[in-house]
């Protein structure tokens, strides 16, 4: 964490993402979703697709609602879109899931399939599974 912080405060998006991931997963630090969100935001502002997708994930799950990350499917979709526009397969798959489930958007299996296909073209196993479903 010490070395990531040194790099992150200098604006390194990868270090910022990694700190967010550590807080999200509790690796080396206690789980703290709002802190994860703060660091992901810093990386996302620099265009980091992984951070953008993980922000979507935090909003989709409402992870840590007591810690400042409420469930918000519309915001999840916004962040997934940012990552998906950069070709980020996990975000594309997540958009498919939101359409498949009707979370924050009208249920639409054909749009879900379109998004899953984009992710599948990149070898995304989750999208492959969801197409099977």
TrEMBL record:
Alphabetized InterPro entries for the sequence: Sel1-like, Sel1_AlgK, TPR-like_helical_dom_sf
One Pfam family this sequence matches: Sel1
Family as reported in the entry's similarity comment: Belongs to the sel-1 family.
Protein name, entry field: Sel1 repeat family protein
Source species: Linnemannia gamsii
